[in-house]
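Quarterly update from the structural biology core.
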Amino acid sequence: MSHLMPTMFEAYAKILHRIEASYENIDKPLSHDEMAILNIPPCAELKSLVESRRNDPKSPRVSWRELAETLNVPFTSEINLEWYAKKLEQGCWPRFLCGPDEGRLSRDECAQLVSVLETFTKNGECFLRFAEMPFITTGKPLLFHGVLHELGAFLKEKAYQITPEYWWPPNNDWCVCSDYDLKFTVVGGSRELIANLLKNDVLECLEVQSHTRIDYLAPMP
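Predicted structure, tokenized:
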């Protein structure tokens, strides 16, 4: 994790980007013969989980923890999509799930993160730096200075389709990293800030350490 984030902070959290249930292949299923001809697996466990979201008030969101419990995957700080892939037959995920997005928090996740950060930021002032790769041929500026509560409107108005790669306040009390290749966002800050993220009802977070391995090759315990 220290490859992404300075090791100067008291604590760190990994915000797992949103996953949602997809009902298209449940509402418009192929016949048994069609599935056999196309060699499509039944994906019974995943299908059952997605169907259960119909009656949940938080539908269609599916948490990483729920998936871990369903597929018998350890819900630990190193968790990544490869762990789920090892438990699923090929093609199951895109049939029944959407996301998580790479390099982008959902609108409500971004709003919740901003709300928490504002409590720990003088005047809400911060810097935003977007990754170079997604904008390499666009000529768009990458570095901005503003206030946190304007971020949502800014992303919508300026058509930046990803979350800033790095955000930080002038006093460097915290730092956020949403790398354009990652399906999670890392936050470093005080223990109190991280505790607030971990107990947030919208953000699905895990505490990590500066030495935690968080790449997609992290081995499953």
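The longest helix spans residues 107-119.
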